[in-house]
C-alpha cells in the first residue's frame, strides 16, 4: 500500500506501529526522501507537520522530522528556481537560497489553518530568491536602505506615470512616498549602480564592424584645446609690453569696444584696432611656431 492511497491519519497509524529499530520519534526512517513521488511527499508532509507541532523544539526527533520535511519539499525550491532560469545566477545558487526560504516556511507553517503547504511556501521561497537577487545584483555596493528605496521609487514612478501620463518630478515622488526630495535624489543616483556594462563590451547593434562601447563613449572635448591654448599663451602674453597687455585685457577681459578702449587710453579707435590686430597676429605666429 503506497502513501498515495491512504489518508494522513492512516499513514500516522501505520508509521507509529513500525519497529523502533527503524524509526525515529514513532516514524519509519525514509532512506531517500528525494525519491518520494509528489503525491506521496504531500501526504507525508501533512503527517509530519502535525507531528512536528507536537514535538519539543531542539530534540533529536524534532530535528529529524524538520529535516525530512525539507528534503521532501525540495522540489518546490527547484520549481521556483526554474522561474528565474533566465537570470545570470546559477541554478545551484538559487536552490541554495530558496532552501533557506523553504526552511522559513516550514518553521512558520501552521497546518491547522487548512492551507496547503505548497501554497504557503512558494511565495516565501520566491521572496527569498528575489531578495538574493536584490542583494547581489548591484554592480556597486549601496546600503540596503537605498536598495529598497530604488524599488519604491520604481513603483511610485510607474504609478504616477500611469495616472498623469508624464514622468514625475523629484518633489512629486517625495510627496508620494513621504520622504524628502534629497532622499529621492539619492535613491535615483543609487539606481545607476544597479547594473553596469563593461566598456570593452560590443555595442548593442554591433555587427562586427562597429566599435566597442569604449570607442563610442570617446568624444572630442573642445574645452581641452582651449585650455591648452590658454596655457601656451600665458608666457607669450607675459612677454608683451605693458600697453599691449592692457589693451588685450580691456578688449578680451573687460570686453570693452575699441572706441571705449580708445577713450580710456586717449588714442583713436583706428589706432586701437591696429594695435589689437598686430598683437594678436604676433601671438598667433608665436603660438603656431611653438
TrEMBL record:
* Keyword hit for Oxidoreductase: no
The source's domain of life comes to: Bacteria
Record-level GO BP terms:
DNA-templated transcription initiation
GO molecular function per UniProt: DNA binding; sigma factor activity
UniProt-listed InterPro entries: RNA_pol_sigma-70_dom (IPR014284), RNA_pol_sigma-B/F/G (IPR014322), RNA_pol_sigma70 (IPR000943), RNA_pol_sigma70_r2 (IPR007627), RNA_pol_sigma70_r3 (IPR007624), RNA_pol_sigma70_r4 (IPR007630), RNA_pol_sigma_r2 (IPR013325), RNA_pol_sigma_r3/r4-like (IPR013324)
Do you know which Pfam families this protein is assigned to?
Sigma70_r2, Sigma70_r3, Sigma70_r4
Q: What keywords were assigned to this record?
A: DNA-binding, Sigma factor, Transcription, Transcription regulation
Domain RNA polymerase sigma-70: start-end pairs: 93-106
- Keyword Glycosyltransferase (UniProt): no
Q: Where is this region: Disordered?
A: 1-29
State where composition is biased (Low complexity).
1-18
Where in the sequence is the signal peptide annotated? none
Q: Which NCBIfam families match?
A: SigBFG (TIGR02980), sigma70-ECF (TIGR02937)
Under which name does UniProt file this protein? B/F/G family RNA polymerase sigma-70 factor
User: Taxonomic lineage per UniProt?
Assistant: Bacteria, Bacillati, Actinomycetota, Actinomycetes, Kitasatosporales
